[in-house]
Design a protein that fits this description.
The chain has helices at residues 30-33, 58-69, 82-90, 130-138, 151-160, 174-182, 193-199, 227-243, 245-254, 262-274, 276-290, 294-305, 325-331, 338-355, 364-375, 377-389, 397-403, 410-413, 424-443, and strands at residues 11-13, 35-41, 48-49, 55-56, 73-79, 96-101, 110-111, 116-118, 120-125, 144-146, 166-168, 188-192, 206-209, 216-222, 458-461, 478-480. The protein is an alpha/beta fold. It folds into three domains: 11-115 and 217-258 and 448-480, 3-Layer(aba) Sandwich (D-Maltodextrin-Binding Protein, domain 2), CATH 3.40.190; 120-214, 3-Layer(aba) Sandwich (D-Maltodextrin-Binding Protein, domain 2); 262-443, Lysozyme (Orthogonal Bundle). Strands 2, 5, 6, 7, 8, 14 and 15 form a seven-stranded mixed β-sheet that branches. The protein has a five-stranded mixed β-sheet with strand order 11-10-12-9-13, sandwiched between helices. A hairpin with a 5-residue loop joins strand 3 (48-49) and strand 4 (55-56). Helix 11 (276-290) crosses helix 12 (294-305), helix 11 (276-290) runs parallel beside helix 14 and helix 14 (338-355) packs across helix 15.
């Protein structure tokens, strides 16, 4: 079962038209077919359907950019496990596979440049201490469940810990193992650090130990050294690094995942069950009026007031959406009335979005608008202007969140139109809100299901009928023939 970060659509994507789904097909040379066939596992770092009903994922973004840059079509084939991915790659059923850990070169695979580092981490119940768990494992009193790609790291550990034992789960994924530890079905698990950081927000009763091995590099792998393809790999990743686009993509998927502590995540999950039901219909009404995802409005309301209609701050903002008196008057709402506060707050977010330059795309547009909601539109405009001066992209949240904190520095705020601002606060505000939103997207149903738009140049095949959406815990998956950008 796959269930990953930010997803709204409830689809299971299957093969495209009359394209063969048999796993025994060898691919034609890409230079001949003008199509790249790419093996991928779905997950928060690879490919999934996001809250807007679009394909997303770091690997999806990278591969589609690579294909466009080289004038090629791309066909993703979603595999059910890492073992299947490697097996099919060695059988020449694809031109390359993504998100593969370097170290399998001896198995007949060649690798492109490394573009990301992860580390194997140990997942254990948070009511235990890391030292007691490590001692238990070293004594051979318990075993670790893991995936095939982490067996090498465990073999290295076994040199100094001869009693260490583990079992490899061939057909699972990292989140499956994390969830089973959280539910008490497994004692311990070894997974990758990125998956652990993301899933810990959903399963705060697990803890992470980073003492299980050194960093491992991810790269694109091919069954043989296609010199032309690997030359294209080198040029592509070099340009991505030089332009800063790689940094932006990494921030999009990981920049906010460590903002919540264990107690914060647990409190939010508890209030989602106890408090959110009272106001859910009003958040959904706000979506009907503004078009904003009701879960985003709800996440904002929690970040502002923890869904407390009587909340008040030292600066005088009040109510569910923490509106100032002036803002409430302009919106024509009673900020102490929870219904009116929610509707007014949603309209105010939309006003902030409408005030930004039309060329700013999503999701940056939303994150910038939420920063303006917190710190004021004037200060956000100052931060964007400062980004231009510093040679950064004023339309990118990853760049503007580095200039907002500078508005506390006299060197910068003296020349800013709107002067001094506590610019670090909106950065924390938005990043925490993004995590609350991710959690709601995972556990709460959307008002309306959406599916990715079809494309002639990008196809996703899902022969095993894996659910590619995140919130499949609350909605049954539906089958469609294809979907793409």
């Amino acid at each position: 079962m796959k269930h990953w970060l930010m997803a709204l659509a409830t689809v299971v994507l299957t093969g495209c038209g009359d394209m063969p789904e048999q796993s025994s097909n060898r691919v034609l040379p890409w230079a001949e077919s003008q199509e790249l066939v790419v093996l991928v596992q779905n997950g928060p770092t690879t490919l999934y359907v996001d809250a807007e009903g679009n394909y997303a994922g770091l690997e999806y973004d990278l591969v589609t950019r690579f294909a466009v840059a080289n004038g090629l079509k791309v066909r993703f084939i979603v595999t059910s496990s890492y073992a299947e991915l490697l097996s099919r790659l060695k059988g020449n059923e694809a031109h390359f596979a993504v998100g593969v850990q370097k170290g399998f070169e001896s198995e007949g695979l060649a690798f492109g440049p490394a573009y990301q580092s992860i580390e194997p981490v140990l997942i254990y119940p948070s009511n235990k201490t890391a030292s007691s768990v490590l001692a238990e494992l070293s004594a051979g009193q318990a075993s670790i469940s893991t995936l095939p790609q982490y067996a090498m790291a465990l073999n290295k550990l076994k040199v100094n810990k001869p009693n260490l034992s583990w079992q490899v789960v061939e057909d699972g994924d990292s989140e499956d193992l994390i969830e089973r530890v959280a539910n008490g079905q497994l004692s311990y698990a070894m997974v990758d650090s990125h998956a652990a950081d993301v899933a810990q927000n959903y399963f705060p009763k697990v803890a992470i130990s980073r003492e299980m091995g050194s960093a491992q590099q991810l790269a694109w792998a091919a069954p043989e050294a296609d010199s032309e393809l690997f030359t294209l790999f080198q040029g592509f990743f070099s340009k991505m690094a030089q332009s800063g686009e790689m940094r932006s993509l990494l921030d999009r998927y990981y920049g906010h995942v460590n903002r919540l502590g264990q107690m914060d995540a647990m409190a939010f999950l508890d209030k989602r069950k106890a408090t959110l039901p009272r106001y859910k219909k009003w958040f959904k009404e706000a979506e009907a009026k503004t078009g904003l995802d009701w879960r985003l409005v709800a996440a904002l309301s929690y970040q502002e007031s923890m869904w407390d209609p009587e909340a008040v701050s030292m600066s005088g903002v009040r109510g569910m959406m923490m509106l100032t008196n002036d803002t409430a008057e302009r919106l024509g709402v009673n900020r102490l009335d929870p219904y009116q506060s929610i509707q007014g707050g949603a309209r105010y977010i939309q006003t902030m979005k409408d005030s930004l330059a039309e060329n700013i795309t999503e999701p940056d547009r939303t994150w910038l608008a939420l920063a303006a909601y917190n710190v004021g539109l004037g200060h956000l405009l100052d931060a964007r202007a400062l980004a231009v001066k510093l040679g950064k992209n004023p339309d990118s949240w990853v760049d503007v969140k580095t200039t907002l904190p500078l508005l506390r520095n006299p060197q910068y705020f003296k020349s800013a139109k709107y002067g001094y601002a506590r610019g670090g606060e909106p950065v924390i505000f938005v990043e925490r809100l993004r995590t609350y939103y991710d959690i709601l997207v995972r556990f709460e149903s959307p008002v309306q299901n959406t599916m990715p738009v079809l494309s002639e140049n990008i196809v996703v095949q899902n022969p095993n009928n894996l659910p590619l959406n995140i919130n499949n815990r609350v909605l049954a998956a539906k089958q469609v023939r294809t979907a793409a950008l």
